[in-house]
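Anyone up for a design puzzle?
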């Protein structure tokens, strides 16, 4: 039951990510359908592989299936494996630099390193608004 729910959530996340990839590619003026197709195939193959891996990896942990700790271990093990698989398949399909760039952007967004100072502090942003309107 938990596994099915998790896979449903992963599929929804992949669908949203695919929409984001297509929107990003349109913004960058990448009009080639072939590039979009390859990127979607990379996501599909990676997701399928990541869905099959737990059958072999999770029994090695010795954690009873269906427990809270099983789900935690599942997420902690499969998430980094998915990222490595994604880059591996991207390399095989010739899109390594594209996916590496996207993963770097996501990592900077998660860690907050890619944001400007005004995005970090609402005080600075409101202060700059006040100074702009003083005439």
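Challenge accepted. My sequence:
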């Amino acid at each position: 039951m938990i596994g099915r729910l998790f896979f449903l959530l992963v599929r929804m996340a992949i669908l949203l990510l695919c929409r984001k990839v297509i929107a990003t590619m349109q913004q960058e003026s990448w009009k080639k359908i072939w590039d979009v197709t390859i990127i979607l195939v990379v996501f599909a193959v990676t997701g399928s592989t990541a869905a099959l891996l737990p059958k072999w990896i999770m029994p090695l942990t010795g954690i009873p299936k269906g427990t809270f700790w099983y789900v935690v271990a599942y997420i902690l093990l499969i998430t980094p494996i998915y990222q490595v698989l994604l880059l591996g398949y991207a390399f095989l399909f010739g899109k390594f630099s594209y996916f590496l760039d996207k993963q770097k952007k996501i990592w900077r967004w998660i860690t907050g390193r890619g944001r400007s100072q005004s995005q970090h502090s609402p005080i600075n942003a409101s202060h700059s608004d006040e100074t702009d309107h003083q005439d």
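A detail worth pointing out: Helices lie at 2-27, 33-52, 54-61, 68-92, 96-111, 117-120, 122-132.
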